[in-house]
Specification:
The chain is of the alpha/beta class. It has helices at residues 14-30, 65-77, 95-102, 118-123, 127-134, and strands at 5-9, 33-40, 86-92, 108-112, 139-142. Strands 3-2-1-4-5 form a five-stranded parallel beta sheet, sandwiched between helices.
Length: 148
């Protein structure tokens, strides 16, 4: 028998940290493992043509999605006793699409929300709304003020 997977969408926000914490606590109750998925869009790199290859805009900050995810996971783990291991996965693409695809192998998908209200969130075109409509497993949406 396979160990159930609790999939969590992580984007570095406080809301996704609350969702990750909830998922890690729930994993202990379900004897499940946790997968944290960080989806991001590649940003196009545009360098204006200038003489001698100088960039008039200075250094463009580089994004490090794997480091962002790892830091988010470690911050939550540091607040918990006996925190479970978390598998970290970084993917390129639309967060809602990637989470929906990954949800087909999960027992549960956990997402944080910014708190615009359940009906409003569901009717919008946000990540949580798309996942609620299309996920391949049950979805838990953690409101921003959730306390266990």
């Amino acid at each position: 028998m396979r160990t159930p997977v609790i999939l969590v969408g992580v984007d570095g926000s406080a809301e996704s940290s609350a969702a990750l914490r909830w998922a890690m606590e729930e994993a202990a109750h379900r004897n499940a493992r946790v997968e944290a998925l960080f989806a991001y869009q590649r940003e196009p790199v545009v360098v204006p043509a200038v003489p001698m290859g100088l960039n008039p805009y200075g250094e463009m900050p580089q994004r490090h999605p794997a480091r962002e995810l790892h830091n988010a996971v470690q911050e939550v783990r540091a607040t918990m006793l006996n925190a479970p291991d978390v598998t970290e996965c970084v993917v390129v693409g639309d967060a809602a699409d990637r989470l929906t695809e990954a949800s087909t192998h999960a027992a549960l998908l956990v997402l944080g929300t910014r708190g615009r209200g359940a009906v409003r969130e569901f009717l919008s075109h946000g990540v949580a709304a798309n996942c609620l409509r299309h996920a391949g497993c049950p979805v838990v949406v953690i409101p921003p003020t959730a306390k266990r």
